[in-house]
Every structure is written in C-alpha cells, then in structure tokens.
Amino acid sequence: MIKFFDLTRQYETMREDVGKAISKVLQNGSFILGEETGAFEAEFSAYCGTRHAFGGANGTQAIEIALRALGVKQGDEGITVANTAYPTVLAILACNATPVFADIQKETFLAEPSEIEKKISKKTKAIVPVHLYGRACAMDEIMEIADRHAVPVVEDCCQSHGSELMGKKTGGFGSAGCFSFYPTKNLGCYGDGGMAVCNDKSLAEKIAMLRDLGQSKKNVHDVFGLNSRLDELQAAILRKKLPCLDTWNKRRREIAKAYIDGITNPAIELPEQNGKGHVFHLFVARNEKRDRLKAHMESHGVQTQIHYPTPCHEQKASDGKARAEKLPITEWNAKRILSLPLYPELDADEISKVIEAANSFR
Ligand SMILES: *Cc1c(COP(=O)(O)O)cnc(C)c1O
C-alpha cells in the first residue's frame, strides 16, 4: 500500500541531526522562547525575505494573532475562501469577526480576485488569501484590490512554505504571512508549531506581545494576549529542516511533473504546474465520479484523501456565524477533488504505481 503520508521516511534521512538538536535543547535547560526559537525566527524570516518573524504554537493562532494585531474585532468581516482547511475560518471566528467567502477559480483552486472585491463591504477589515495546496494566489491583483480599499491582507501560507511569485516568497506580500509547521506540511515539526512574518515594526511589536500573554515586558500585560509560543525543541528541529526545504520542494515539483506527464487518462483532470509558484503541498486531481476513483485507487494500493470534502460555509460551526452565500464553483469543486500521495520521499516505483492506477481507471 502506498501511504498518503509517511513521515518516518524523512526522519530516517535526518535521524542523527534531529537527535543532536533535541539533546542540545535538553542540556541547555531552556524550553520556551530561548535561543533556538530566536535563531529559527531570524532564519525563517530571512528565508521568506521579511523583516520580522514570531514563532507561535500553531498556524491557526498565528493567523488569529496577525488579525488581532491588525485590529480585527467583533463586528468586522474577514474575506477568505471556503475551500480551505477550517482553521483559516476558525482564526477569523476567534477574533469574533465574521468570515465572508469569495468563490474560487476553476483552474487554480484559488480565490478569484474579482470575487474578493465583490465581497468587500464597509465592515471588511481583512482579506485572508489562502495559498492552497502550495500554489501562490494572484497576489498582484489581490494586493491592488486590497490597497484600493485600504484593507490589510493576512496571507495563509500554511501550505505554501517556499512558494514564489514574481521572485518573491509567499508571506511577504501582505501585512503579515502565517505559517503552520504541523507535521505533514512542506516544513513540519514533530508536534504543533506556527509562525507569523511581517515587515512593519509596530505590527511586529503587537504580534510579539499577543503571542506571549500580552506582555510588553515580563509581568507587564498591556493587551489581552494568548499563550501561543513555539517551543525550543520544535524550533531546534525546524532549524535542522529549513536548509532542506528547497530541495524537498524541488522534489515535490518533480513528482508533480511525473504525474502530469504520466497520467494520460482523459477522465482525470490534473492541476497546473506553474513553476516555483507551486510547491505541491498537495496534488489535487478532479474527476466526475470522484468516490469511484477513490475506491479504484485504494483497490490498486494507493491511499488518497480529500482536501476538503465539506466547504467551510457548509460546516455546522459556520451556522449563524459566517455570511451564508452560494459559492457555485467551490461547491462544484468539492464533489470532484481527490488528492494523490505526493511527498519528497516517494520512490520511482511508487510514482509509477500511482500513475498506472490512475490510468487504469474507467
Ligand atoms: C494546516 C493549515 C492551517 C492550520 O495550521 P495548524 O498549525 O494546524 O493550526 C491553516 N490553514 C491552512 C490552509 C492549513 O493547511
């Protein structure tokens, strides 16, 4: 069986480095906001091409903190998409704001900029584009719209570590960019972790306070903050992994190309390649009989998943909290998508098996 994820394989390639990183932290005896977190923040920020970075407990809270630092509060609206991981929506809800959903582009699976603009109201206080599956949104168009309406942008980069657009990394376009280091992400730790990056100094100061109990300095609590810090063990592990990210992303793109070239079944619609703008966190195909295709892949030894089966506006938790609206393309898309296994450690034989299984589907 070809597993959808196999995190043990990456660990095997870096067992020694990870072991050393963990021992160093345990011997240092500092576990929260110490030198490993500080060093990783500087390294990750440099990687993204931003000025500031703050490690957090997870990606969901990194988004919430960025939104709160920008002043998003009760009665405000935040525009995002409904074909995202529900945490994007949870972060807006956590600010007591109302999630508003823009429909997507069929070809890219991403927010359609003109649909974002249509959803802007007097209450709109943030736009949260999601670089879904590892593909960068049309940030040039989105930033132009946001700037024209003077609405800040918080990029959800939880699936797009290293993805580039016009030579710039995702996370550096908006007021802030928020990342998750959940184990299965392109850059993942061995537990939960997150990061918010930004360029503006005063926004950076607010994010720093919010993630650390609202403290401006020790025992001085200026704002209603969160306990949302990256811990030293995860930071030390992530420091060992960050130098490998570009190589892993390159391998992801190679596997995606092998699928795109190899899967010739006309019934299966494949995603676009899109250069360095796509780091293939997920490889998502579409088929009219998705559930049958899923069963077929499974019976040919290939695990698949669906990202995501229920659009966010149709989730029960959104009832009465999100603006209820029809999203024709999002709803059409959700019934047809299927994610095939794609991670850097897949070998040539497994890649061929995935291709054969997809091509034998009738
Ligand atoms: C993973 C993910 C999140 C949440 O990150 P956590 O670290 O799990 O809280 C948010 N948005 C998207 C698009 C994600 O894929």
**CATH class (first level) name of the largest domain:** Alpha Beta
Structural class: alpha/beta
Radius of gyration, whole Å: 20 Å
Instruction: Please state how the strands of the largest beta sheet are arranged side by side.
Output: 1-9-8-5
Mean pLDDT: 97
Amount of beta strand? 5-15%
What is the structure about, briefly put?
The chain has about 350 residues and is α/β, with parallel strands linked by helices. Helices cover about 40% and strands about 15% of the residues.
Provide an overview of this structure:
With 362 residues, this protein is α/β, with parallel strands linked by helices. Helix content is 39%, strand content 14%. The protein has twelve helices and 13 strands. The strands form five sheets. The chain has a four-stranded mixed β-sheet with strand order 1-9-8-5, with helices on both faces. A three-stranded parallel β-sheet has the order 3-2-4. A two-stranded antiparallel ribbon has the order 6-7. Helix 9 packs parallel to helix 12. The radius of gyration is 20 Å and the shape is globular. The mean pLDDT is 97. The protein binds pyridoxal-5'-phosphate. The site of pyridoxal-5'-phosphate has 15 residues, from helix 3 and helix 4.
